[in-house]
Design a protein that fits this description.
This protein is 44% helix and 16% strand. The protein has helices at 4-17, 44-51, 54-57, 70-78, 90-97, 145-156, 176-181, 194-200, 210-214, 226-231, 233-252, 255-262, 271-283, 295-307, 317-320, 324-331; strands spanning 30-36, 60-66, 84-87, 104-111, 116-120, 136-138, 166-168, 187-191, 205-209, 220-225.
Length: 332
């Protein structure tokens, strides 16, 4: 991976996030700017933390901006366009491998499985993975968690994604669903609620879950520069405490209750779709029930990266994962 993608996107992300104020709100809460890699019901606990007043309860005013892509999210964090990023932990390894003086660390895990689904066009017979051979597969960005897990699952089913498929992975993350809807590809890997909406509109059919197929993996976590975590330790602890409380809230409430809670963040998504999506994620244990990113999960992440040929170097868990905030949260 090259560091140049960070430089290229610097100005773009700065323009998106530059208007975010660092000033302390008048109500005395601490402002925290979060850049999320995409906007999805997959991140329900994050939105619950806002809608149920959990962040506010912990003295935080959290502002979320969608940056649409792991590279853009990391750029936002590195350029101080955001205090915290919500993204796949693999991005921290890429930056560390380039010799970063101020490493970016994962400090609170949000999801623990892949959140994408395989959508097929004109699927009229029972699905099996061999049906993908020789077909055009619209995948995700190379080096990102969705693509890596996708390749890991395909390999597990005896499919070489670079030899047995016509693999397309040069379409910008935000445009993948539109490309598929316009006729590109026979299969596509999509997040929710996009996958379910496409199915409801008759544009495709969900035939498999990459989350169920790949098992437990630290898919999405909150990251921040080491310097930010040191200078703002109290804020990081409050943030992690709130995330843990939100994760517990999601774990103990029904899909319908969660969908209604986060509805203001998904005004264009019908409530029945939201309920269906959240229930699907809950049933496959996608939502973390605590924010601790364990060492075995970290090692599994690197195994998946290695399988995809994008692991620049193996990095010990202790170097890029800071668990002290999450451990303190769960002890309360």
């Amino acid at each position: 991976m090259k560091i140049k993608w960070l430089v290229i996107l610097f100005l773009l992300v700065a323009s998106i996030l530059g208007g975010c104020s660092k000033d302390k709100p008048k109500d005395g809460t601490t402002k925290v700017r979060v850049a999320e890699v995409t906007h999805s019901l997959f991140y329900a606990p994050q939105y619950v933390a806002i809608s149920e007043g959990i962040f506010k309860k912990h003295g935080l005013d959290v502002e979320i901006t969608t940056t649409a892509g792991g590279d853009k999210t990391m750029t936002a964090v590195l350029s101080n366009g955001a205090d915290i990023g919500l993204v796949g932990p693999e991005t921290t390894i890429y930056v560390y491998a380039q010799g970063a003086n101020d490493p970016v660390k994962s400090f609170a895990q949000l999801t623990q499985t892949d959140g994408t689904f395989l959508v097929a066009r004109n699927q009229t017979v029972p699905f099996n993975w061999d049906q993908l051979k020789g077909k055009t597969f619209l995948g995700q960005r190379k080096g990102g968690m969705p693509q890596m897990v996708g390749e890991y699952v395909l390999s597990k089913h005896g499919i070489d994604p670079h030899k047995d498929l016509n693999l397309i992975q040069n379409i910008d993350f935000a445009n993948i669903a539109n490309a598929y809807a316009s006729g590109t590809g026979e299969y596509v890997q999509l997040f929710e609620p996009t996958a379910s909406i496409m199915e409801k509109e008759g544009r495709g059919k969900i035939v498999a879950s990459f989350g169920l197929e790949s098992g437990k993996v630290p898919y999405t976590a909150f990251i921040a520069k080491e310097s930010y975590l040191k200078k703002n330790a109290k804020t990081a602890q409050k943030f992690t405490d709130a995330i843990y409380e939100a994760e517990q809230w999601v774990d103990t409430h029904s899909a319908e209750e969660i969908a209604k809670s986060v509805a203001p963040f998904f005004k264009d998504t019908p409530l029945d779709i939201s309920i269906k999506v959240i229930d699907r994620y809950k049933s496959q244990n996608s939502y973390s029930t605590n924010p601790i990113l364990e060492e075995d999960e970290w090692n599994n992440l690197q195994k998946i990266m290695k399988n995809s040929g994008v692991l620049p170097k193996e990095v010990p868990h202790s170097v890029l994962v800071d668990t002290k905030f999450a451990e303190k949260s769960t002890e309360k």
